[in-house]
Amino acid sequence: MLNSESILAIQxxxxxxxxxxxxxxxxxxxxxxxxxxxxxxxxxVWEAIYELRVRGAPAIGIAAGFGLYLAAKNIAANLEPxxxxxxxxxxxxxxxxxxxxxxxxxxxxxxxxDRLDACAKANAHLPLAEIVSALRLEAQSIRDEDxxxxxxxxxxxxxxxxxxxxxxxxxxxxxxxxxxYGTATAPMYLGQERGYHFRVFxxxxxxxxxxxxxxxxxxxxxxxxxxxxxxxxxxxxxxxGWVQAVLVGCDxxxxxxxxxxxxxxxxxxxxxxxxxxxxxxxxxxSTIDLKCATxxxxxxxxxxxxxxxxxxxxxxxxxxxxxxxxxxxDVTDQHLITAIITENGIAxxxxxxxxxxxxR
Amino acid sequence: MLNSESILAIQxxxxxxxxxxxxxxxxxxxxxxxxxxxxxxxxxVWEAIYELRVRGAPAIGIAAGFGLYLAAKNIAANLEPxxxxxxxxxxxxxxxxxxxxxxxxxxxxxxxxDRLDACAKANAHLPLAEIVSALRLEAQSIRDEDxxxxxxxxxxxxxxxxxxxxxxxxxxxxxxxxxxYGTATAPMYLGQERGYHFRVFxxxxxxxxxxxxxxxxxxxxxxxxxxxxxxxxxxxxxxxGWVQAVLVGCDxxxxxxxxxxxxxxxxxxxxxxxxxxxxxxxxxxSTIDLKCATxxxxxxxxxxxxxxxxxxxxxxxxxxxxxxxxxxxDVTDQHLITAIITENGIAxxxxxxxxxxxxR
Lengths: 360, 360
Known about the structure:
2 domains; Four Helix Bundle (Hemerythrin (Met), subunit A); homodimer; about 40% helix
């Protein structure tokens, strides 16, 4: 059994600087197996993101940043050290577009790739080897900054909570989804250190069970009182009076405050509204997309229906050939969100006015 | 592949009058296997109800009725043909209490057992063999009446719907849960016969997957357009504008209209209210319990947490030893229910006034 320190010491994705490889915890195997993968090509990184071996908006951004750095290194290795930037940059752009195609919804993916792109352009006058070095530092910065961002989210989040509260979370916005601390879980970890004795309910989050497999694994390891429920039990748990706040992560926040997050989040928000429970969205500013006016503009990833009917099971659990619908995300209407917590402060409605201030 | 006629011809539970045995379709094996069990003792019937081999409030009532008849037959067989009624009745009452202990929430179980009890007492003056015969007929009546009840529910339900509508249902209130037609599915089957071309969304209904395994199996076999979704996808499906009515069964309706049904039903009702979609509860009068003032008095069955963490899976899908909460039902507040459909008509709020009329 891990303890709080050891679960927070887990690095879901990191760069092995000596061997130039990404070391990535395969989250599809948790809680049954703790296995680290070594990735060295953009194809391996794409597959790891697509198959959710790494998941969670911040961790996807970190993995994509490292992935684009590795791609750049491989591209440069096949060119003369004094090769033309234009030749390098054409291939770099292809690698960027390829990695961007792995998942459409989380904006951090694009945000991280854009940061490396800007870094490459800013260093265009330097030799390729130095450009590649700069990209490595930039990718590492994305990871290192995320740890500080999460800690800050935790402090702001904790300021909204009181000891002994019952909290409900959906999916996994935990340390596994980030560099460290998680987003929605950050106040849980900080609260644990400070004797808040929260009681957490974790939605299992079908079909991929990120809540059942990952959130319970994290919180149990940290010694936090966690109870697993099926997604359809959130209503009775709230009705029982066991939940004083809902805390969720997000994959993209539109300018008006509409927030895309794991499928089912919007339903939890509607229940929270009905039962009069505050609903908090934890959003690193990297997930805020002011170019997106409302949630209607956010592309929702549709995944393989087999994830609903067959995955994980010993036998298929639906009739052969049945239709199934498998959207990976939904959009929670801004009116359902009590506050959006960022690393720069807490935004309250009207978000169209308060979110820009968080980005400054 | 079954067709509409053959799926409706399936008898989830029936009495083999020649061999005095209950022939029961083991619903835990569907959709992978269609296996009929032969039950001859009260212990076997208890186990079949407890393990959900037979489930759905009406089918549980039917099985319990047949079970108590078999118990009575076995009791009488061990007594002199002219044995005293009192001796018979003491054992009969024990068998009744035993069968009643199989599941606490669905009132049909108690209702069916009470019908046989009343039948035994009404025939107390007759020889034991004739009492047993009367019990057999009474148990068979419960089954036969249920078919008419469901057909009537279907007609009333269909009067609330229009062709081409999108419908959403939770759990399985289908032909498998009743003698025939189902409760919430009855209008779907009648609509299919009359060219209504409904599009049905079936919540998979964790943890036991009655929607994913049973409702899809039934409706697909009948040629009805059915799409399976995870429970947490009901919100996005409603937001997409794909649902014009929610149809669910129930296990017990209190005098004020509060309705206990499969876990998650109350959440679906809250979503339907939020999105302005009518929410209809299909309730044979046998599920209406006027002795129960409100839903707060309904005992909610808590089941083994392993159903959440391990059942169906190839490997455990949550960390060893994690807490899990597994209530089998929840109560939907009467204010969330647009109408309660019975075999005697449609009750609208205030239910405390309209429900008694349905029982007359």
